[in-house]
Design brief:
- By secondary structure, the protein is of the alpha/beta class.
- Helix content is 38%, strand content 13%.
- It is built from 16 helices and 13 strands.
- Helix 2 packs antiparallel against helix 10 (248-259), helix 3 (43-56) crosses helix 10 (248-259) and helix 4 (67-77) packs parallel to helix 5 (94-101).
- The longest helix has 18 residues, at 261-278.
- 49% of the residues are buried.
Length: 392
Amino acid sequence: MTSGTGPSLTKRGLPFNRPYMSGRELEYMVRAHAEGRLAGNGPFTQKCQARLREALGSAAVLLTHSGTAALEMAALLLDIRPGDEVIMPSFTFVSTANAFVLRGGVPVFVDIRPDTLNIDESLLAAALTPKTRALAVVHYGGVASEMDGIMNLALARGLDVVEDAAQGLGAAYGGRPLGSIGRLGALSFHETKNIISGEGGALAVNDPELMARAEIIWEKGTDRTRFERGEIDKYTWRDLGSSYLPSEITAAFLLAQLESAEEITAGRLELWHYYHDRLAELEDEGFLRRPIVPPEARHNGHIYHILVNSPEERPALLQFFRARGIHAVFHYVPLHSSPAGRRYGRASGDLKVTDDLAARLVRLPLWNGMDEGALMRVVQALEDYFKRGGTG
């Protein structure tokens, strides 16, 4: 967070997100071109993968062109087949479900916890059937799901766990990095995430038994990666796969971001805590609810959300923000209520918490480079709306 009033932002609209550059992105992109390697799996890709592997402690990490691609790779690696059921929250992005539906899998939607907005681990056992193959766990806003209970259930029932840690790089559960706990973990570097490359993602392979096949799926179903390492004299088609690699231009941008990951995360946490401290009074007076982070979860400041008291209040607040030139937004439309969700999946039990919280959630602007003036503008708008009836 920088000091000052931020005149460039206070005189015009304040965006919800602004992509952040740490300093060396363009330099590295130019270098990739100068070195004559723009296709995937070049030096920048390998440097990014090494950094992520070290950060996560994973057996292997493969860069992908999106977090969606990483989830699709996970579904292929787990051999999800028609009729296989995959339990997941309904309060998530469509990619969590799509990756498994593309293999013929059936998403089984389970309600979320009212505190973290993550899947309610106490409801998982009731959702199991003989067709259950895997659990897809989403760490909402970089706040960890209750992974001990989830992993214990998976181990007892012989199920695989895929972590959708799209928002989770730099966050942890009980000291373990998000994305490194399940058998597989998917990360995203979309421009709305903390660490970005425009579009981009990564698959963390935490089971060494999956490493060889993961490389084949990653390289269009071929053993080209082994060929490039000099382990075989030619490569050929071995398995299902697709073109999941990002370009070296994307990887070059990402490397600069990863080199500054601690600084970027620290900056977002500073912004998150500014909101959290300044909005405590509004929560104490009953106007809103702030995020709840369990003690075992170390979050990364990815999202700052509030919950208003009723679904009817949210559109009025968002309209008030728009009138002030502030772009605040809601989030997911629950998948179980969507046309495709009803067609391809099913709900386990009622999802009352999901329906309720999804209709009351508002995300506030948060991005590296916001100054105190921009933050105060958001806080002041909330105070004016709730305490002064939209005046002031």
